[in-house]
Design goal:
Shape: globular
Distance between the termini: 33 Å
CATH class of the largest domain: Alpha Beta
Number of helices: 7
Helix content: 25-40%
Number of strands: 5
Radius of gyration: 19 Å
CATH topology of the largest domain: Beta-Lactamase
CATH superfamily of the largest domain: PAS domain
Largest sheet: 5 strands, antiparallel
């Protein structure tokens, strides 16, 4: 992301956070480096993240597909997320694009609703949330390796077979799912997937080539 644009957006991050208080985490991601994309964060205690942390799995997959949802929207608002310790967050995210309409960053707001939800019906209107389906869960982590591991583990869970019984077709499907989720946009993904599937990194490259051929034939 252009440094001038970054300097312009950071005061917006600070203003939103100051307006809504300590329960409101605001994060600016520079997507030129997804492994440590967080360049500004206010109230990072909400999710336990800090500057230098990685992009989330949900944002990564949405970026991989050019936008949020089937409509490839630039933003998604008021969706439900959870922290590792089970607190409910009200989240909104918007992609930042350059003049060529290329996604270069992401501005995210995560508001901890725990206190509001305890008030019950008084907070009903404010806490109106849009549920993400299971395949679009968002995980807040401090280590990009955890994102990769989560993406790969979920892909393997979809196959629903022990590793010892998985065939080439199963491995291909796992690789395809990881690709769809944007996993290969992160450094080290080839080696980690090879380790998880107990194959060589060159086998993963071959799988990716087969997937590309399959996509061209189906177009």
């Amino acid at each position: 992301m252009d440094k001038a644009l970054e300097r312009f957006i950071i005061p917006v991050v600070q203003t939103i956070s100051a307006t809504f208080g300590k329960n409101c985490e605001v994060v600016l991601h520079d997507l030129s480096g997804p492994q440590n994309s967080i360049v500004a964060i206010e109230n990072g205690h909400v999710t336990g993240r800090q500057v230098g942390g990685p992009i989330t799995d949900f944002a990564l997959a949405s970026w991989r597909h050019g936008g949020f949802g089937k409509e490839k929207r630039d933003r998604i608002v008021n969706y439900k997320t959870k922290t590792k310790d089970g607190r409910i967050l009200k989240s909104s995210s918007v992609f930042i694009k350059d003049r060529e309409n290329k996604i270069i960053g992401c501005l995210c707001i995560n508001y901890d609703l725990t206190g509001h939800l305890m008030l019950g019906k008084i907070a009903d209107d404010f806490c109106n949330l849009t549920e993400l389906n299971e395949e679009k869960e968002e995980t807040f982590v401090t280590d990009v390796a955890e994102i990769l591991s989560n993406i790969i583990d979920r892909a393997m869970q979809e196959i629903n077979k022990p590793l010892s019984l998985m065939q080439k077709e199963d491995n291909l499907r796992v690789t395809e799912i990881v690709d769809e989720k944007g996993g290969f946009m992160i450094k080290g993904s080839i080696d980690l997937l090879a380790h998880k599937l107990n194959v060589s990194r060159y086998t993963i490259y071959n799988y990716l080539d087969e997937i590309k051929i399959k996509k061209r034939v189906n177009q």
